[in-house]
Write a structure and sequence with these properties.
The complex is a heterodimer of chains A (about 130) and B (about 450). With about 130 residues, chain A is mainly α. Chain A is about 80% helix and about 0% strand. The chains are: A mainly alpha (about 130), B mainly alpha (about 450).
Chain lengths: ~130, ~450
């Protein structure tokens, strides 16, 4: 450092610090948040996919339910769909901390797969 | 070094809030509590009134049974959450407590699991027994439907009081059969006595027999024509007089017995100290995060609240959920059908209330499952027995049973192992902290001098 003038030393320190902060904000912090919340996000997304899928399937038996049970069914569906709000909320939080959209979509796709939604579309499709 | 500090501060500042889960579930449950109109369970205060004391004596006194060897308390045991820990209850002629009780050879076997008694005074409890054969049709005017039909006496306080008289008249529960004598090990005044109640009513059938049994039970309790010929009868006369001071002694009937039993049960078996109720009342620390997650599953994706609804977590309606019997097919329990005779009711059973369910294993009408985990799994996969065989080689379920399964369960639920664990945590939060407390409930002795509850 002795080779540089004091002013240049300060400038170099500022640049180095800026680079560290930039590195932290762009890579370390998003990775930290992703590592800490990936499981939560995956779980919320999986539950959301399940809730959406089950609501569709339940609609097929709606006519078999009494009005009271139909009402309760819709209320339980509303509760189950809260997981979708949780997924959205957590997704926004993660995005605000720098987590990339591509990462969220990757997790979402894995959640969709583990919820069995893709295969269920074939198995549970209503008869034509 | 300074840069390192800055980094550390930044990292700590940006660390996610670990309590976010709690906040989410609390907020979600507040919404659920509003949407489902969930309220803390209203209960009557514990008070040892004269009617309570009479009901307690009757509940624990085996003198009500034909053979003087079983009481209500024999199959509704405080230590087993007012059930008995057996898959199917064992009535007269047996010895032992709870799971230790063994079916005697040659005696009739009562086929169903002992129902708990918690909070049955609640207005939502409109049917009794697994098949709902005793129901209240109009609570305000106290109109009931029961196997006694038009012979059911007037004056019962509620459906639980009506229910209380029917086990007295069942041969496999408390009545016994003609020719029975009481066990020789009982106190000398009661040992080897002819079962006059079963004997003198053996020529009667149906409602007439229930009516005859009821009259003889009352006569055994308090004597006839106001005359006490046995020592316990004067004690019971005093208890009835204290409980019903306005009632002439000659007018005491099975209605008063039922009402006193019902009063005791509603005071003794009331959930007054339940974490879930405290949570509903605003104490967010009353239940664990796992229980909160379980409530979220219960009222949400698990669809439990579609049938397990209301303050007692039961719609008191009837559903088939694919629980097979181990007996030969011709003996399969057809549930609600036995009460109504309607084909659509085959294999349907009443939705069990869930308060204190953690204390009342085994589960279902025949005690088929030993654990809550297994009971939940049955709901998730009601067809799991459909392709299985009995030991005899017969199918475990037939087409009628399969087709009877409630459409609510036919969709197929997706619950993970964590979901099931959380549901159990939630059900545990429905357990009364003092459910097993015996003080003020179990008497030291009963007027007849027989073993309390029929237990030696």
């Amino acid at each position: 450092m002795g080779r540089f003038s004091p002013a240049l030393q300060v400038l170099l320190c500022v640049v180095a610090l800026a680079l560290v902060v930039q590195l932290y904000l762009d890579h370390i912090r998003p990775q930290l948040w992703l590592n800490l919340h990936e499981t939560d996000y995956h779980e919320a997304a999986r539950r959301c996919h399940e809730a959406t899928r089950e609501r569709t399937v339940w609609a097929q038996i709606e006519q078999d339910l009494t009005p009271r049970r139909r009402d309760l069914f819709y209320r339980t569906s509303g509760v189950a769909l809260m997981d979708c709000y949780e997924r959205a909320s957590l997704g926004l939080t993660l995005r605000s901390k720098g987590v990339g959209q591509a990462d969220l979509e990757r997790i979402d796709l894995m959640a969709r797969h583990s919820a069995g939604v893709l295969s269920d579309l074939f198995v549970r499709a209503p008869a034509p | 070094m300074r840069g390192l500090y800055v980094c550390l501060i930044l990292i700590i500042w940006s660390m996610p809030n670990q309590a976010a889960g709690d906040v989410f579930y609390d907020a979600a449950l507040r919404r659920i509590i509003t949407d489902f109109n969930v309220r803390p369970l209203p209960t009557k205060p514990f008070e040892e009134t004269e009617k309570y004391k009479l009901g307690r004596a009757l509940f624990f006194d085996p003198i009500l049974s034909g053979n003087r060897d079983v009481a209500c308390a024999t199959c509704h045991i405080v230590q087993y959450g007012s059930s008995d820990g057996l898959a199917a209850s064992i009535g007269t002629g047996a010895r032992g407590i709870g799971p230790e009780r063994k079916q005697p050879v040659g005696r009739l076997r009562q086929p169903r699991n002992s129902l708990d008694l918690w909070n049955r005074d609640n207005d939502r409890a409109r049917s009794m027994f697994w098949d709902g054969r005793v129901e209240v049709l109009d609570p305000a005017r106290r109109v009931f439907r029961s196997p006694m039909g038009t012979l059911l006496p007037k004056g019962f306080d509620n459906v639980m009081a009506v229910q209380a008289i029917f086990p007295l008249a069942r041969a496999d529960e408390m009545l016994g059969v003609e020719g029975d004598t009481s066990p020789s090990h009982l106190p000398s005044r009661h040992a080897n006595r002819i079962n006059e109640i079963a004997g003198r009513t053996s020529a009667l059938e149906g409602p007439e027999r229930i009516e005859g049994v009821a009259a003889l039970v009352v006569a055994r309790l308090i004597g006839t024509g106001g005359k006490a010929t046995e020592p316990w009868q004067s004690t019971y006369q005093d208890l009835f007089k204290a409980a019903y001071p306005e009632e002439p002694a000659n007018d005491i009937s099975i209605v008063h017995v039922g009402n006193a039993l019902s009063h005791f049960e509603e005071i003794a078996f009331a959930s007054r100290n339940t974490p879930w109720d405290r949570y509903v009342d605003g104490d967010t620390n009353a239940i664990s995060i796992e229980a909160k997650q379980g409530a979220f599953v219960f009222f949400g994706k698990g669809r439990c609240a579609v049938c397990h609804e209301g303050p007692l977590f039961s719609d008191f309606d009837f559903h088939a959920i694919g629980v097979p019997d181990a007996s030969s097919p011709e003996k399969w329990d057809q549930g609600r059908f036995l009460a109504t005779g309607a084909a659509r009711d085959k294999f349907k059973f009443r939705t069990p209330p869930l308060r204190n369910v953690t204390l009342t294993a085994p589960y279902f009408h025949n005690g088929r499952t030993a654990t809550l985990e297994d009971a939940i799994t049955q709901h998730v996969n009601p067809l799991r027995h459909a392709d299985r065989y009995q030991d005899s080689g017969a199918f475990a379920m037939n087409l009628d049973q399969i087709e009877a399964i409630s459409p609510i369960l036919s969709v197929g639920l997706h619950l993970s192992a964590d979901d099931v664990a959380h549901l159990i945590a939630f059900l545990t939060s429905l357990e009364d902290d003092k459910a097993l407390a015996e003080e003020g409930i179990i008497p030291v002795s009963v007027p007849s001098g027989l073993p309390v509850g029929g237990f030696e």
